[in-house]
Design goal:
This protein has about 625 residues and is of the alpha+beta class. About 45% of the residues lie in helices and about 10% in strands. The longest helix has 30 residues, at about 105-135.
């Protein structure tokens, strides 16, 4: 059903649903441990339970992989649902119907999307029928057989055939103005402005339908049967299709096995289908572009391990390095990435036919782990026995490691750099700071979809007529961006983060928080978040983490803080409210003291001061003296 779900219904639903009921049956070995429940995390592999849930706060968190949220968030992560779908599922559990706030614009948008999905499905059925019955089908069948593809494999992926001719599908649908517009919006029709004519986008091609996670056809890829160019042609980006986040074969892989352990990322459609025919049902392909951060974030929510497959030549090595730089900021502890390089002249499809499933699977298991490939690729052209070589190595490797999320893997890689270069951790930190001050952001921090790497830009792939890319949440200037700046010190928690963590565990303590004026002058990353959190908790005294998550998700500004909150939630946790209150009472004056220190330093550096500034300086010095004086009561 179309329409916006009312906020009051979501609040009521979360109040009705017990998160433990949602987790029961989905989290293995779930059992009560004191006030909490613990079990094996369903989002990563583990033998010892690190997943915990609090019934009172209606919140879950995994200490192993960092997954956390409320019942809605869990349903979205576990069942790979979008927000409205998760609400629908929870409502079914509660035995209530989801109301909708209808609007004319929303109804029109939903009807437009439905028409596009119906048309794309109709196109898929048309192409599969042409492969079975069209007079020119022999050339398509011959090609598929030459690639060793069976009829069962082609049927499993609904592979079809777009016959020669300019308007086969156009005539099938009906050549009127309404249908022509819909076909063009679906990416199936091209309009020639000069001749004022329309023709089918896909002609004389093997057709591969691309499906979303719900199995709906959203686009097509076509492999030419003659000598025409381009060799591979993808649908343009449309309302249903974004090439930077979709993966060919992902729906089929999850349809075959809902509990996937790994995904193999390859280059071509035929690689995916060929591997599936030989029992490797976990291969997916990017759609004419390099793997993006969006791809990886989506994939790592489903599986703990990703294997990248590349040619063994120089172009393949270059593409692998780009994939490495895209992976580093995304991967976290509990997740694994490997890099497999194929023999010259082979692709996954040909290699699995040549050596069989068992040997090919062994190759996958022997792929280079991320850290090993990282150090191998950064050191192979440098002499680590010389000071110059170690300096070059440090300057190249450290900025990339700094893009990683805090965790054990990042620390182990820093330790390895220290071992290879002979530099201490403090010296490495100085190198990082120097690089940050003098260099632009590394390529991995730039928008990943702003270009197509050379490896893929060989004339075989084409996406003509791309629509402007719709801005993602991270691109919207109205939302605060999560800072990439490392936390102060090495592994320490900033004071603002400490206070945020306490308030997330004990929201009622917000009543104690009277923030000092000029707090925004304090150079800590999460001061705006701290202010927003205290304002929210004071205005919602009965709020839980679950209600906060839902309320903030709907706000265009506050939603940008949710990922940061998730990372801070279990930073240096405190389980006793009395202890938490004492820590908070001690921390708030420290914030004010730090602001005073900054102002004192600023005034001290001035060569000439006004009378007002002189008075302010004297007051700050006196205040500092009183704060440092011993307490006679102790």
């Amino acid at each position: 059903m179309a329409g916006r779900i009312p906020q009051h219904f979501i609040d009521d639903l979360l109040a009705r649903v017990n998160i433990i009921d949602v987790l029961d049956g989905r989290v293995q070995k779930l059992k009560r441990t004191g006030k909490n429940f613990s079990g094996l995390c369903p989002f990563h592999k583990e033998k010892t339970p690190s997943f915990t849930a609090n019934q009172e706060k209606q919140f879950y968190y995994c200490f192993g992989c960092g997954a956390g949220g409320n019942a809605l968030g869990f349903m979205m992560e576990y069942d790979h649902l979008d927000f409205p779908q998760a609400v629908e599922e929870l409502a079914k559990m509660a035995g209530i119907e989801v109301p909708r706030e209808e609007s004319q614009q929303n109804r029109q948008q939903q009807q437009q999307l439905k028409s596009l999905y119906d048309l794309l499905e109709q196109a898929s059925q048309f192409y599969t029928q042409q492969l079975r019955s069209h007079p020119a089908r022999e050339q398509a069948v011959k090609y598929l057989k030459s690639r060793g593809l069976s009829g069962q494999a082609a049927k499993a992926f609904d592979i079809g055939f777009a016959p020669p001719g300019w308007d086969n599908f156009l005539e099938k649908v009906g050549n009127d103005e309404k249908n022509r517009q819909l076909l063009e919006q679906a990416g199936l029709l091209i309009h020639n402005e000069e001749r004022n004519s329309d023709y089918d986008r896909f002609r004389n091609r093997i057709m591969f339908p691309i499906r979303d996670q719900r199995g709906r056809v959203i686009a097509f890829g076509g492999r030419v049967l003659g000598d025409d160019k381009p060799k591979y042609l993808n649908s343009p980006e449309t309302e249903t299709f974004r090439k930077g986040r979709e993966l060919y074969g992902l729906y089929e892989a999850r349809k075959h096995n809902q509990k996937l352990e790994r995904l193999l990322i390859v280059e071509g459609y035929m690689d995916v289908v060929g591997l599936a025919q030989y029992g490797i049902h976990y291969a997916v392909a990017t759609l004419g572009t390099a793997t993006t951060a969006q791809h990886l974030e989506r994939v790592f929510k489903m599986v703990p391990e990703v294997i990248f497959c590349f040619d063994g030549d120089q172009a393949g090595r270059t593409a692998a390095k780009r994939a490495l730089s895209t992976t580093l900021p995304v991967i976290k502890d509990g997740q694994e990435a490997r890099f497999l390089f194929l023999p010259d002249g082979e692709d996954p499809d040909s290699l699995v036919r040549q050596e069989g499933t068992e040997l090919f699977s062994k190759r996958l298991d022997e792929g280079l782990p991320l850290a090993e490939f990282f150090f191998k690729s950064h050191s192979e052209e440098m002499d680590l026995n010389s000071m110059d070589g170690r300096a070059r190595f440090s300057s190249a490797a450290l900025p990339m490691i700094q893009t990683m999320k805090p965790g054990i893997l990042k620390q182990m890689m820093l330790d390895r750099v220290s071992e290879l270069t002979g530099l201490s951790q403090d010296q490495l930190e100085s190198v990082v700071n120097l690089h940050s001050a003098t260099q632009a952001a590394p390529p991995s921090q730039q928008e990943p979809d702003s270009f197509v790497p050379d490896y893929y830009d060989d004339g075989d792939y084409s996406d003509p007529g791309l629509l402007p890319t719709y801005p993602q949440p991270s691109q919207q200037s109205s939302k605060p961006r999560r800072s990439d700046t490392p936390r102060s010190g090495r592994g320490t928690v900033q004071l603002s983060e400490r206070i945020i963590s306490l308030l997330l565990h004990f929201p009622t303590l917000a009543r104690l928080c009277e923030l000092p004026v000029k707090l925004d002058q304090l150079p800590e990353n999460n001061i705006p978040l701290l202010c927003a959190l205290i304002d929210y908790l004071k205005s919602h005294p009965r709020a839980t983490l679950g209600t906060l998550y839902v309320d903030w998700q709907e706000d265009p500004v506050l939603s940008g803080y949710l990922m940061t909150l998730n990372g801070i939630t279990y930073a240096d946790p405190v389980n006793d409210i009395q202890k938490a209150e004492q820590i908070l009472r001690d921390a708030l004056p420290k914030l004010e003291s730090r602001i005073d220190d900054l102002r004192l330093n600023e005034l001290s550096k001035k060569i000439s001061r006004s009378e007002e500034e002189k008075n302010e300086l004297n007051q700050l010095l006196l205040k500092q003296h009183l704060n440092q004086a011993p307490n006679p009561a102790k």
